[in-house]
Write a structure and sequence with these properties.
With about 425 residues, this protein is an alpha/beta fold. Helix content is about 35%, strand content about 15%. Strands 4-3-2-5-1-6-7-8 form an eight-stranded mixed β-sheet, sandwiched between helices. A six-stranded mixed β-sheet has the order 12-13-17-14-15-16, covered by helices on one side.
Length: about 425
């Protein structure tokens, strides 16, 4: 299959969250038939609820600053599935993506014919196997591997990494991972393995207890971000600067906006230190990190900012950012989200901060119908728009001193980038 055909087939497998089938039997069988490419890779494995992607991006950028050839595997993508598999900071080409898909798909079909697996690998399982193939073929020095869902039974958990990293744990995907923080943390702790050191971001106490208990059971060394002090923190609307105390003090400039990103940068720095990266290379790598769609400024006068605040914890981080930097200006909020998210809770966090709220829907079958929020939210200036384009028309006369946030689903953020920043995707290899 060519690239469009391969993408069409992947999408036909169904939404990667809704059709997720947690378990490692299929992916292990497929990778074994492919020669276990993952076993040739030196991997940093990253789980958590929030900050996984940005932490991965900063770790990978630090490795590149150290002169290493990198592989980065993240999800979801913003514009094209190729963004999930990056080599040296750039997405795999469409041709490379399709070639890897064809190899994985052929093996899956053979295993199905022999009844060696129960069903075709899911979207996420398939692309995970493709990523391992591409990284092995490229001979990358380091891979930064983001968990898709949970940890213990996630398709990425077939690896034996050189380091495990767990970013902040909060509520999300409770139908898969359990209703309590302790249950969710236990699933994330499933990436911890005997003999593999770990780095833990600052955690809620109930999550920290679960992680610490599991680390003690495995008798593994742990670096805790809570023990490294962030000092002289200076925040602005575009990022932060701070000093990170510890055995190797670091002067960090984080180009990703939001106070929470300072914590993510500290976690990334500690992970890079644990991998033996020099402090100057860590500082340079984090300063050069890119992570689109998260508090990303795309227009000025009026300012327009994109952020994928798709769960309550991410919404609280966005609310803190708005309160710190935009509390004195008139704020317009364009919001759209998926049906399986905590829409009412997220709306309750964000809507009171806005002078005007426009609820719309991403171009996705799982999108929440905008009008359905009318019964569960109360706002004096609430409007509805069937599409993002229609929502943007409602704010086209906003004064230059106002600020506009487009938020909720990453699908909506991706649409906004396509409309507002055409041609700015990462260039492929």
């Amino acid at each position: 299959m060519n690239y469009p055909d391969s993408v069409h087939f992947l999408y036909a497998l169904g939404n990667e969250i809704k059709t997720a089938k947690l378990g490692l039997e299929r992916i292990r069988a497929v990778l074994d038939a492919l020669g276990n490419p993952q076993d040739t890779l030196k991997i940093v494995h990253v789980a958590g609820t929030n900050g996984k992607g940005s932490t991965c991006a900063m770790i990978e950028s630090g490795f590149r600053a150290a002169g290493l050839r990198t592989g980065l595997y993240t999800s979801p993508h913003l514009a094209e599935p190729t963004e999930r598999i990056r080599i040296a900071g750039r997405p795999a080409s469409a041709e490379r993506f399709a070639a890897a898909f064809n190899r994985v798909h052929a093996v899956v079909e053979q295993l199905l014919a022999r009844e060696a697996i129960d069903l075709h690998t899911t979207y996420f399982e398939t692309v995970t196997a493709m990523a391992f193939l591409i990284f092995a073929e490229e001979g990358v020095d380091r891979v930064v591997l983001e968990v898709g869902l949970g940890g213990r039974l996630d398709a990425t958990n077939v690896v034996r990494p050189s380091l495990a990293v767990i970013t902040p744990i909060d509520f999300d995907h409770e139908s898969f991972l359990g209703r309590g923080i302790e249950s969710i943390a236990a699933e994330k702790a499933g990436i911890l393995k005997p003999g593999v050191p770990a780095v833990f971001a600052r955690q809620r106490p109930e999550a920290a207890r679960v992680l610490d208990r599991r680390a003690a059971e495995l008798d593994i060394p742990v670096t805790r971000a809570a023990s490294a002090s962030i000092q002289e923190l200076s925040l602005d609307a575009r990022g932060s600067r701070f000093e990170l105390s510890g055995a190797t003090p670091l002067s960090i400039r984080c180009p990703l906006a939001g106070e929470h990103q300072a914590d993510n940068a500290a976690t990334a720095a500690l992970a890079l230190l644990a991998c033996g990266v020099d402090h100057r290379e860590i500082e340079a790598g984090i300063a050069a990190a890119l992570w689109p769609g998260r508090l990303e400024h795309v227009r000025e006068h009026p300012a327009m900012i994109l952020d994928g605040a798709h769960n309550p914890a991410a919404a609280r981080a966005l609310a803190a950012y708005i309160t710190r930097f935009y509390s004195t200006v008139r704020l317009h909020l364009i919001f759209g989200i998926m049906r399986d998210k905590a829409a009412a809770e997220i709306a309750a966090i964000l809507f009171p901060l806005a002078w005007q709220v426009i609820v719309t829907a991403p171009r996705q079958s799982r999108a929440l119908a905008p009008e359905s929020l009318r019964a569960v939210v109360d706002h004096p200036n609430l409007q509805f728009a069937p599409t993002l384009e229609a929502a943007l028309r409602l704010i086209e006369d906003a004064p230059p001193d106002d600020v506009i946030f487009i938020t909720g689903s990453l699908f909506l953020v991706a649409e906004a980038r396509e409309l507002l920043l055409p041609g700015t995707a990462f260039p492929p290899l």
